[in-house]
Write a structure and sequence with these properties.
Layout lengths: L2 E4 L9 E3 L5 E3 L7 E6 L6 H12 L1 H6 L2 E7 L3 H11 L4 E4 L4 H5 L10 E5 L5 E6 L6 H14 L1
Parallel strand pairs: 4-5, 5-6
Antiparallel strand pairs: 1-8, 2-3, 4-7, 7-8
């Protein structure tokens, strides 16, 4: 069941995780920027591939909105590199091997529940979707981001 909520949901939980190249990425790296974090269960599965490819196809639209996109899953950096190369993915993917960040965002339910969060430039969670269906989701995120930025 899809659940979406919008308003200030408090400070975004901090994180520091390696990206696909092994470089550590932290929430503080995005101060003064909008950030979309999407959690997904597994590289190279149907829904996860669709979602990553959709975010990649729309990356220029997100950049025009001064918004960064990060995908997080419990896969290894090597798996992320293969996934990116195989599917021409152009978003940063972070490795949450012990699902510590998934736990902080309350999306770990025996595996990651596909979920997306919008974080404003002040570091606050301002919108979340839980139990996401990949098809059409990226359009929904773009639409909500535009609404939030008009406020």
């Amino acid at each position: 069941m899809k659940h979406a909520e919008s308003h200030n949901l408090g400070s975004a939980p901090d994180f520091d995780l390696p990206d696909q190249n092994g470089n550590v990425v932290c929430l503080t790296d995005f101060e003064d920027k909008w950030l979309v974090i999407y959690f997904y269960p597994k590289d190279n599965t149907t829904g996860c591939t669709l979602e990553a490819m959709d975010f990649s196809k729309k990356i220029k639209e997100f950049e025009k909105l001064k918004t960064c996109i990060i995908g997080i899953s419990p896969d290894t950096c090597e798996s992320h590199c293969d996934f990116i190369k195989k599917n021409n993915i152009c978003v940063t993917l972070l490795c949450d091997l012990g699902h510590k960040v998934a736990d902080k965002y309350k999306v770990w339910k025996e595996k990651i529940e596909r979920s997306t969060f919008i974080i404003n430039p002040e570091g606050n969670l301002v919108h979340e979707w839980r139990g996401v269906q990949a098809q059409g989701h990226v359009e929904e995120v773009l639409k909500k981001l535009k609404e939030l930025q008009k406020k």
